[in-house]
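Hey team,

Filing this mostly as a record. A colleague (T.K.) asked me to run one chain through the structure pipeline before their review meeting, and I want the input and output archived in the tracker in case anyone asks later how it was produced. No errors, nothing strange. Just documentation.

Input sequence:
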Amino acid sequence: MSAEPGAGAAGGIGAGLLAVGGRYQSGAAIIAEHTHFADDLADAELIVTGEGRFDVVTLHGKVVGAIAAAARPLAIPVIVLAGQVSLDKSALRSAGIMAALSIAEYAGSVRLALADAANQLMGLASQVAARLGNSGPSGYR
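Output structure:
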């Protein structure tokens, strides 16, 4: 049972739920269904999304990974704003992500980013918007 997808989630609660007849469902898929993500995606020219820590785990089962996977066949550019980013450009490109920007890097450190997270995020988002406004998505290619 421990090899089942989701069995180790939340400290093993997933395994307990599977043992009593529960089933695994992707949280990202549930969110996409209930927010009608596919309908909105059809009209999108660019997606900007976020994550606390953007790493390889994010690409497998988390919302950001699901967004990138859905956007890729439609050639919709995806930009990720995250507290920290630990993926290189090759991994980003493989996942169909145009750019991933770190709030901690923008702020100068994790400590500074956490001390004023809202303003640091707004500053980074403003920088992204300005760059996109000057050159469109090609500014990140």
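Quick notes for T.K.: The domain at 36-140 is CATH 3.40.50 (Rossmann fold). The longest strand covers residues 47-54.
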